[in-house]
Design goal:
The structure is a homodimer.
Chain A: H1 8-23, H2 30-37, H3 41-47, H4 59-72, H5 79-96, H6 98-109, H7 112-135, H8 140-163, H9 170-186
Chain lengths: 193, 193
Amino acid sequence: MGRWEPNARGRLEQAALELYVERGYEQTPVAEITKRAGLTERTFFRHFADKREVLFGGSGGLEELCEGAVAAAPASATPMEAVAGALDAAAVVFEERGDLVRLRQGVIDANAELRERELTKLASLSGALADALRARGVDDLTARLTAETAIAVLKVAFRRWIDEGQEPALRPLLAECFDVLRTASARGAVDAG
Amino acid sequence: MGRWEPNARGRLEQAALELYVERGYEQTPVAEITKRAGLTERTFFRHFADKREVLFGGSGGLEELCEGAVAAAPASATPMEAVAGALDAAAVVFEERGDLVRLRQGVIDANAELRERELTKLASLSGALADALRARGVDDLTARLTAETAIAVLKVAFRRWIDEGQEPALRPLLAECFDVLRTASARGAVDAG
């Protein structure tokens, strides 16, 4: 057993992100990350399965935050309102960490393997949102569709936020995307059957 | 150069799918696929980058089909109507190949690496749909959101179609999903801003 290291996880995340930006993700071995963080490889692997997971360590917390927000939505909230509130809560976190979020996204965008992992994490978030909606009594089909639609909105709003230099803020972009979606859905698909 | 093999690609796909179902994806080397198909490994790698791509060789054709359907939608069609028409065209193909589609999905569902690849292919399809909408003069934000929403609908309807033993057919499930989405979006997100 190693000794306890204060904020080892945060130090490893910070060191990894710096190195991924400076040298590229593929060119950064775990040994370099632990050297920069002043920690051992044993400590690294106590916190992360591999160097890819360093970038996605926050996704569990994000899921919990979103699930909690859906559960805490007023009883009168529609399913779409409940997930919109969840994304709004997530956006507050993204905005607070704006510069780090942008650096991290640059690393992900540059690597196909990381982009695949990101899509998997978003699929997991969709499943968590659908579970939270079903727990509110929402029927299965509406829960799945609303959750997948929320992820669609999140992807588009988040990408625009990153591409536009984080101005305007993410929260108004999310609201705008839900507005556009409402308009687009209202007249859509009448001849799809 | 090898000699020309009639329908080599189709024979390799068929052999690979059979073996993936019988033995599992991970336990099937390329050499077994080519042996079953009566072809050489050289022929295999002329058609596919790796054994994973055998399962996704149709995705390029699916993208072209969907892009073509969006382009061919009446000028009066809304963006959502245009993508709904594209999914409807894709659903016809899925329904025609129902048993193969189900076998293939079972292989993908059983393997995390294949599930990640499937998500990447769906993201690519979303990009193609957005491009096709922009080519119709649809603004960028509406194009992206409509395309991502179409993928959301496709994922949910397709999953239900597979889970329910392909009855009812996929096309009515898609129409039902667009209906549910319209209802869910209409009252949603009013307090998201």
